[in-house]
Design a protein that fits this description.
With about 270 residues, the chain is mainly α. The protein has helices at about 10-30, 30-50, 60-90, 95-100, 105-135, 145-170, 175-190, 205-210, 215-225, 240-265, and strands at about 55, 60. The chain has one domain. A hairpin with a 2-residue loop joins strand 1 (about 55) and strand 2 (about 60).
Length: about 270
């Protein structure tokens, strides 16, 4: 009597990579998402650089300042905004409900989202840096310390925005309302966080509101990487305050995780 060998178990790493590959393929098949996520920051840099070319501080042009903000915005777009829009679509279509009914562990779904966000975030950042260096003479970090700062600010920032995007996705009641709920929030954060305007030129109350959220601190941390040390004196605290940047972004990672665990929904209200 012959026995049929059971198929080998798939390890957690392979499960996560498979789901990540699936998420990437789905993202790349959506031309609108690819164009908006990858192209929007580049287009904005080209437009603003053509309009504003004056200096905002000694040896610091507006373009240099704006590029750092757009790198942070790109990371927020691919994580917070992208997840906040697409998860409600998948929930409304019943994709999440079907996934919950399969033997696949729930964490694999989120691991796939994280892998997709990281891969697209790296590609988008590389594209922005390449365009900025080629066309606008952006100087890349010249020391290992600045590259390390670039790394941990990006990792903490994208982690916080990813968790907040997953949690925020529960606010959208339908697939159509996802974009209407998330996009205005993302745009407001960009305007008040020092992306389009020099942060210290904004009204005081606006600076205080922006300081609550991650994007302001992502921008500030990235300015410490790409702008001269002397520009730190132009920041509200008189320096780049990297310790506070790390503290706020880490706090938002914790807040985002708690919100995900307490608010995430696999089904719509009509499904129960």
């Amino acid at each position: 009597m012959t026995t049929v060998a059971s198929p080998p178990l798939v390890g957690p790493v392979r499960l996560a990579l498979r789901q990540g590959g699936l998420e990437l393929r789905q993202f790349l098949r959506s031309r609108e998402s690819v164009v908006f996520t990858m192209g929007f920051p580049v287009i904005m840099i080209l437009i603003f650089a053509a309009i504003f070319n004056d200096e905002i501080a000694p040896a610091v042009s507006y373009t240099q300042y704006f590029i750092t903000g757009m790198i942070a915005t790109g990371l927020m777009t691919v994580s917070f905004q992208n997840l906040g829009i697409w998860i409600p679509i998948e929930r409304d279509r019943g994709v999440l409900k079907r996934l919950r009914g399969t033997p696949m562990p729930k964490w694999v779904y989120f691991a796939g989202k994280v892998i997709m966000v990281v891969v697209i975030g790296i590609a988008e950042t590389a594209l922005l840096l390449a365009v900025s260096v080629a066309l606008f003479d952006l100087r890349l970090p010249g020391t290992l310390g600045k590259w390390l700062t670039f790394g941990w600010v990006s990792v903490l920032g994208i982690a916080a925005c990813t968790l907040c995007g997953i949690a925020f996705s529960s606010l959208a009641r339908t697939a159509r309302s996802g974009s209407a709920v998330v996009t205005p929030v993302a745009l407001v954060l960009q305007f008040i966080s020092g992306v389009f305007f020099v942060f210290t030129s904004l009204p005081g109350w606006m600076q205080q509101v922006a300081a609550i959220f991650p994007l302001k601190w992502m921008c500030q941390g990235l300015r410490s990487v790409f702008l001269p040390e002397s520009f730190g004196a132009q920041e509200p605290g008189g320096s780049f305050e990297l310790g506070r940047v790390a503290l706020v972004l880490a706090a938002w990672c914790v807040i985002g995780l708690v919100l995900c665990l307490t608010t995430f929904r696999w089904t719509t209200k009509r499904d129960g």
